[in-house]
Description:
Elements: H1 2-10, E1 40-45, H2 47-54, E2 63-66, H3 72-80, E3 84-87, H4 90-98, H5 108-118, E4 126-132, H6 140-153, E5 154-165, E6 172-182, E7 185-195, H7 203-209, E8 215-220, E9 225-231
Parallel strand pairs: 2-3, 2-4, 4-5
Antiparallel strand pairs: 1-7, 5-9, 6-7, 8-9
Helix pairs in contact: 4-5
Amino acid sequence: MLRERLIGILRGPRSSPEVPLLAPRLDGTQAGARVRQPDLVQLRQSRGLEQFFVSFRDQAGLSILDLGAAHQENINFITNLGHRFYSEDFLRLMQEAFDGSLPDQSNTGRIEYFLRQGLNYPDGHFDGVLAWDALEYMEPPLMLATVDQLLRVLKPKGYLLAFFQTAERAQMAPCYDFRIQDAHTLQVGQCGHRPVSAQLFNNRSLEKLFQNFESVKFFLTRERLREVIVRK
């Protein structure tokens, strides 16, 4: 039972029995993973997170994909609800695939490589995806391709939660780290800055981005962060 639990947490279905498991560190990352230490940490209420977990109330055995680093708080919270936890550190994968360059994000070959590394899962594998703020660091070609793949790996009626800054930004923007404290509270840490897309994420542009989903719902926070929850 312990081995099955570790498999569900630490590797996706594309892994084979011959691939050794990666032992989790105390901070929840896997051995060899890059650890981002937050510079500034605060607790904040999240209506989007609350809505995400309310959608799965009274259910167990679901598959949840986290697109941030595999923090122990997130692993514990989701597995304690009886769900399976998967992690793909999108910011690390983007750094590897595009070397931090926004222009390269229109390169078809690099996009395909990134998606193979991060979303090589069967159709309809996940009940929910915690995308956090990963999408806002993408140029339109990469973002559209990624959203299409997220739609593909979500089950019908599955949910995706994503965060976007509401203000116009410069070429660099804060990079955040999200750890779940409870079903409606996040520990948010700032981990330096990253280059960002120049586009403005307003309600209209986000509705267009998620136009192939069944529904899109917005929550605007006092930190000028737009929380978006979409259902397939």
